[in-house]
Amino acid sequence: MARKVFGRIEKLPSGRYRARHPNPTPGSAERIPAPSTFSTKGAAQTWLNTRQDAIAGGTWVHPDDAAVARQATQAEDARKAVAFGVYAEKWVATRTNSTGEPLRPCSYSSASSTVTKGVLRSPILGQRPLISLWRSRPPR
C-alpha cells in the first residue's frame, strides 16, 4: 500500500527546496508555503512534518492569522514600553478642563512644572516604562 504524502516539496532552479502544504480549512484549495526555502530536502520534509503534527494536534494557526496576532502583540508591547515621563508630558499637553477646553496658561504651566520637576528629573519615574509602575503597586 502506498504511503499518503502530506504536502509537496519542489526543487527550485537555485538548488533550494520549497515546501507547501494544503490549508486544512474545509473547502479551501489554498497551499500554505513555508516562510522560506530550505537548503536540503530533509529540512523541507521536517518542516512539513511539524506542520502535519500541528494540524493533527489542533494547534495549527494560519500564517496570516499568526501575523495579525504577532503585530497586535508587538503594538501592545510598544505601548507598554512607553516611559512614564513621555506619557506624563503627553497627558499635560492634551489635558482639558471640565468644559472640554484646553488648560489655561497658568494651569498648563503648573501641571507642566510638576511633570518636569517631579517626573522627568526623577531617575526612578522619568525613564521607567509606564506598565512597570502598575506592576510594582502593592495589592489593596
List the helices and strands and how they pair.
Elements (H helix, E strand, L loop, with lengths): L7 E4 L5 E6 L8 E3 L7 H17 L5 H18 L3 H11 L10 H16 L9 H6 L5
Antiparallel strand pairs: 1-2, 2-3
Helix pairs in contact: 3-4
Would you write up a description of this structure?
By secondary structure, the protein is mainly α. The chain folds into two domains: 8-61, no CATH class; 81-135, no CATH class. It contains five helices and three strands. It has helices spanning 41-57, 63-80, 84-94, 105-120, 130-135; strands spanning 8-11, 17-22, 31-33. The protein has a three-stranded antiparallel sheet, with helices on one face. Helix 3 runs antiparallel to helix 4. It starts with 7 loop residues before the first strand and ends in a 5-residue tail after the last helix. The mean pLDDT is 85.
Short description:
With 140 residues, the chain is mainly α.
SSE pattern: EEEHHHHH
> Could you report the average pLDDT, rounded to the nearest whole number?
85
Q: What's the shape?
A: elongated
> Which class of secondary structure composition applies to the elements?
mainly alpha
- Which regions have little confidence, pLDDT < 50, spanning 5+ residues? none
Strand order of the largest sheet: 1-2-3
Strand content bin: 5-15%
Work out the number of β strands.
3
Our count of domains comes out at: 2
Query: What is the gyration radius calculated from CA atoms?
Result: 27 Å
Give a short account of the largest sheet.
Answer: 3 strands, antiparallel
Q: Termini distance?
A: 67 Å
